[in-house]
Amino acid sequence: MLNRFRGALGAVLVAALALGASDRSAAANYTLTVEPTFPADQLREVYGPLLAYLNRSTGHRFTLRAAPNFNAHWRELRAGTKVDFVFEEGHFFDYRRKKSGFIGLVRTQENSAFAIAVADPEIAAEGRDGLVGRTVASLGAPNLGYVLVFDAFRNPLAQPEVRATSSKWSDGPDLVFAGEVDATLLPGYMTGEHPSLTEVWRSNEVAGRVLSASPELPQDVRQKVAEAMSRLHEDAEAFAVMNELRTERFVAVDPSAYDGMERLLINTFGYVPPTPAAAPAAANAPSAAPAAATSTPQPAAATPRP
Fold this sequence. Notes:
Layout: H1 2-26, E1 29-34, H2 40-58, E2 61-65, H3 70-79, E3 85-88, H4 90-100, E4 103-108, E5 114-118, H5 121-126, E6 135-138, H6 144-152, E7 161-164, H7 171-177, E8 183-187, E9 198-202, E10 210-213, H8 219-230, H9 238-245, E11 250-251
Parallel strand pairs: 1-2, 1-3, 6-7, 6-8
Antiparallel strand pairs: 3-10, 4-10, 4-11, 5-8, 5-9
């Protein structure tokens, strides 16, 4: 009897160990590529809570990666650099999905918009026209705000002088107050945080930032990440993530809302219309509230840039 008990207990232990080994072997390492909207050390702080959440909720291990600047991000995109998951604005996503077949998993509930703000009341009194020839602080091209500015100011003789002088969006107001530039380009959600600045131009809204996945990833992994992100706002520790990412929640992606946004890049160095990729079946992302309707800008023919 004792031997039988020992034999049964041994079998249970072996089965448990085998199951544990199976679970561990199923875990995999993936990269999450993001836009270089902060210096590298701050990027790790901003996205740390999201990586911790994904590690905990999916059972996989995620590592953050970002190009050193927007020009490098664009260069990697054009070159088809192998990446797993990407969180970026819609003009990049639209190019990536058409060129490399990336699949949109979720997007921010909020649409994206950018604004130019000034501190000088004389410039503010002129409104949009007062920006012509003025220096504007920005992150590097071709970030979404940059291309939206030149989509709106199409006459090369009547454009602001947008300078890549900021390493993060919050640098811009400081540069204005220091007198180093006349104005600053900011994400729309930041303009209200600086009451000493006056908004003189705002872009049209476009569909918000997207988390997309390589079509080469297993469908069950894409599905698990999509479900985790759609539930993020329900998580007890989600506030830190949402606060850093400036969103209330993530919702399902409607690819048609992004169709044509890649043409905002038409005047960017190296732009070639993306060759349509063989689109895999859409990821089975969970249902989510529909995003707000957006209008996709229609860039004019290429014009010289300052």
